[in-house]
Amino acid sequence: MSDWNRQESSISAKMRLLSxxxxxxxxxxxxxxxxxxxxxxxxxxxxxxxxxxRLGYYNGPINGNFGPLTENAVKTFQRAxxxxxxxxxxxxxxxxxxxxxxxxxxxxxxxNVLKVGSRGAAVTQLQQSLRTLGYYKGPVTGYFGQETExxxxxxxxxxxxxxxGVVGTNTLQVIRTNLASRPNNHSVGGGTDKYPNALNEGDxxxxxxxxxxxxxxxxxxxxxxxxxxxxxxxxxVVRFQRDYGLTANGIVDxxxxxxxxxxxxxxxxxxSACSPTSGFICLGENSxxxxxxxxxxxxxxxxxxxxxxxxxxxxRDAVAKFQQTAGxxxxxxxxxxxxxxxxxxxxxxxxxxxxxxxxxxxxxxxIRDANTLEQVRQxxxxxxxxxxxxxxxxNAGAFGTRPEAERRSSQLRDRGFDARxxxx
Length: 424
What we know:
The protein is mainly alpha-helical. Helices cover 48% and strands 6% of the residues. The chain has helices at 2-28, 43-55, 68-80, 91-107, 121-132, 146-158, 169-181, 206-217, 231-243, 254-272, 288-299, 313-325, 336-341, 372-377, 402-414, and strands spanning 361-366, 384-388, 391-399, 420-423. Strands 2-3-1-4 form a four-stranded antiparallel β-sheet. The longest helix is centred in the first third of the chain and has 27 residues, at 2-28. Mean pLDDT is 76; it is low at 1-6, 16-24, 28-33, 103-110, 184-196 and 346-357.
């Protein structure tokens, strides 16, 4: 019986070794295997998924099922290796996977080179360094995946290094040099330029944080201010510089800093004086009224942007230019006087009125309390408040004929408003 047990144990051990050998053979006998594709399953698929995950191309479960996630990961790997991206794992892709995965397994512990598949504290430090320099936007995981590789390539390209995505001694030294040369913050003052140390990509500190907040105030910076000057901040600066006729290089010198700060203060101070409850159109409003304003400004040559219905900084600046030309106080928000000057009081084409005829029949709702305007806007979004000989009222639409105006007035009366039609 003991001889039988020993024989059975020997057979079991051999079967386990055979199973491992067959799994490894998938990547080693490329020319002898059929192509793996969507719908296949088994240990060969598991091996492919583990290799692709190690390389940073696959983020799905290791389940041995060749589904759409595995197929997309294979295609991405094939594109990176200049292999036809068909999503099938044939002999050529098998050889590429073998070459990509096996060296990393054998050398990662002894090599100082960081590349796809590397893990550990060195990778964590690399990701943090690249994030500080503005090249890496992903999470700090300590794993060198495809996102980290692309960040390394961008850094290498910007520094005229060999852009292979591998962090060797040379690349690591340049990263350290760039980190060491970054000032903690930029000093302000001295010389003819108030800001001699221009802010640019890779900088960090309180001035960068203030820059981002100012750009956010002006509608150019949509991310959370972090104090790190990365590509998102640079793009915001470039857009601002283009809009204000400055050199669009993404570098914040004294001229650009002053322009951004001045306009941010202007926006903050003037928008605080804008009262939506009084019917004014202020920064941040999104409504058909803004569409009417933008259309009128475009017709008169003050606004060349897309008609969006959103009252952002570009619309505000166009309104301020119009107000200056019209001899009005250039507040940058639309009060009733500006609304009239734009020709919109009796010729508002939003909300169903006919823009091709003179609209003289106006539906008005007397203002009884501070909520009247907002209540009317629930049914007539373009309504606005007016002070006139008739008292304080809400203009709920202007029409070319009385029947059109009466229909609007009747609709509002049905909803409980004291609406009536006046002829202007």
